[in-house]
Amino acid sequence: YPWRHAPETRLSEFNLTEIEAMLGSYTKVLFVRDSFQRLISAFMQGTGSSPSFSSFVQDVLDSGQHNASVAWKPLVSLCRPCLVQYDYVVMFGFLRQELGHLLRRAGLHVDSLLPEFTDTQVQWTYSWLSEQMFSELSLQQKKQLSHFYHWDLAAFPFSSSFLSD
């Protein structure tokens, strides 16, 4: 459907038949990251105007999923994994290994194409930071966040997520 495709064309602008044909012709890769880590990252980057992580989380919870920023909106609502059959799901923390596998499957030389990734090195930092930030939240906020990201936790195996406890 190149006659209707432009960089700014959204998938929702096509009818179901066109969408199925297009998606069937692509290799679909989904990159995911633990929802709580995404929330911490959004706070650290100053996405919200809250002075503390706890007040930032409360602002996120009060805004609801429909008004949520892409930075912390549940992944399931952004990428629709129940509707789109992704060929690969790559989790933060495994980028180098997973992308190497993808490139090899595509018949490309891995060593010359892969940049240096730091995701595995920052996992420890995020683990520590997650523990610190999680301890700032009230029990009610923890429960509300787990509910807010319920479908993400069901769809993706974030086994070490603080929200899955």
Automatic annotation (TrEMBL):
Q: One GO MF term, please?
A: sulfotransferase activity
Task: Specify the protein name.
Answer: Carbohydrate sulfotransferase
Membrane disposition? Single-pass type II membrane protein
Q: Which GO biological-process labels does this protein carry?
A: carbohydrate biosynthetic process; dermatan sulfate proteoglycan metabolic process
What lineage does UniProt assign to this protein's organism? Answer: Eukaryota, Metazoa, Chordata, Craniata, Vertebrata
| Gene that encodes the chain | Chst9_0
Enzyme nomenclature, EC number: 2.8.2.-
* One CC-aspect GO term: Golgi membrane
- Family assignment? Belongs to the sulfotransferase 2 family.
The answer on whether this UniProt entry bears the keyword Acetylation reads no
Q: Which UniProt keywords apply?
A: Carbohydrate metabolism, Glycoprotein, Golgi apparatus, Membrane, Signal-anchor, Transferase, Transmembrane, Transmembrane helix
Q: Which organism is it from?
A: Oceanodroma tethys (Wedge-rumped storm-petrel)
Q: In which compartments does the protein localize?
A: Golgi apparatus membrane
